[in-house]
Write a structure and sequence with these properties.
The protein has 229 residues and is an alpha/beta fold. The chain has 2 domains: 4-127, Rossmann fold, CATH 3.40.50; 135-227, Orthogonal Bundle (Arc Repressor Mutant, subunit A), CATH 1.10.10.10. The protein has 8 helices and 12 strands. The termini are far apart. The model has no long low-confidence stretch (mean pLDDT 85). GO terms for molecular function: phosphorelay response regulator activity; transcription cis-regulatory region binding.
Length: 229
């Protein structure tokens, strides 16, 4: 049965373009132009995944409100914020409200589809009974690659899909520097250096929130980043 994706976007041209592109990939798409219409639909039936613009018509943070509503209805439904805005305040606010990933509208369709597929994969894996899986353990860090989960000192670290694959790239060879290009390649994304830096900062912050002494992600200026054991 085809997966259902809800697309909440107030720009008619963008809404139509992405609806057609997602349908071409075999997804059923429910498209909404504003928060009230989407909210009413979600109260009746939930999609399998939601892609939500932050600014909706005259509501500058309508997408945030919609995300909160969805999280009250389901703790596991994958949610992607999709927006023209790219700054740490928006991103952190969105992720705190329960979004799984945050993408800007300049990303390629291939990147968006990769994020959607990864979220569906994680959702499917988390629904399965616990089973033997591929894991990486480095001291207090445990990364379950099969289930796409991360724990630090036995506490879960809530990483987005993009952040998960960036961390995975760093820990595959501890102590070895990963360039920004390598991080982009391994996380299947095409963005500028500033966006990579923002992702790394957010990963660090999430670990520091659990451990004030966390200092395992090093910046090697002019080159990239590495995980120090």
């Amino acid at each position: 049965m085809p997966r259902t994706i809800a697309l909440v976007e107030d720009d008619a041209a963008i809404r139509e373009n992405y609806t057609l592109a997602l349908q071409a990939q075999g997804y059923q798409v429910q498209a909404y132009a504003d928060r009230p219409r989407a909210a009413a639909a979600f109260d009746t039936a939930l999609p399998d995944l939601a892609i939500i613009d932050i600014g909706l018509v005259d509501e500058m943070e309508g997408g945030f409100k919609l995300c909160q509503q969805l999280r009250q209805l389901s703790q596991t439904l994958p949610i992607i914020f999709f927006t023209a805005r790219d700054n740490d305040v928006d991103t952190i606010s969105g992720l705190r409200m329960g979004a799984d990933d945050y993408l800007t509208k300049d990303i390629s369709m291939a990147h968006l589809l990769a994020r959607i597929a990864a979220l569906f994969r994680r959702t499917d894996l988390l629904a399965l009974p616990q089973q033997q899986s591929e894991q990486i353990r480095l001291g207090e860090l445990l990364v379950d690659i099969s289930r796409m989960t991360v724990t630090w000192r036995l506490q879960p670290v809530a990483l987005t899909v993009t952040e998960f694959w960036m961390l995975h790239a760093l820990i595959r060879r501890p102590g070895h520097v990963k360039s920004r290009q390598q991080l982009m390649d391994e996380s299947q994304m095409v963005v500028d250096d500033t966006t990579i830096t923002s992702h790394i900062k957010r990963i660090r912050k999430k670990f520091v929130q659990l451990d004030n002494d966390f200092e395992h992600i090093d910046t090697v200026y002019g080159i990239g980043y590495r995980w120090q054991g």
